[in-house]
Amino acid sequence: MKNALAAAGMVAVLSALSGTAAAKGCISGAAVGGVAGHVAGHHGLIGAAAGCAINHHRNTVKDRNAAAAAAQPAQPVAPAAQPVSTRH
Asked: What is the value of pTM for the model shown?
């Protein structure tokens, strides 16, 4: 019980200190990683830290790709090809 209370206190302090922009994807990744770490041998804090890092990285890459796609000009759409008739 003491460990759970200490972990909850650390989460509260760390979430108060971190900015919301830097934590994009961290909360959901930490929740999933914490549960997985707990199930895999009572390593919830390690799982939460890893889940936070992985999900934050995925969101950063997704945002970077979206910004790159938005910066590229749109490709022109070619007109549809007319079917060629073999009958005369």
From this structure: 0.54
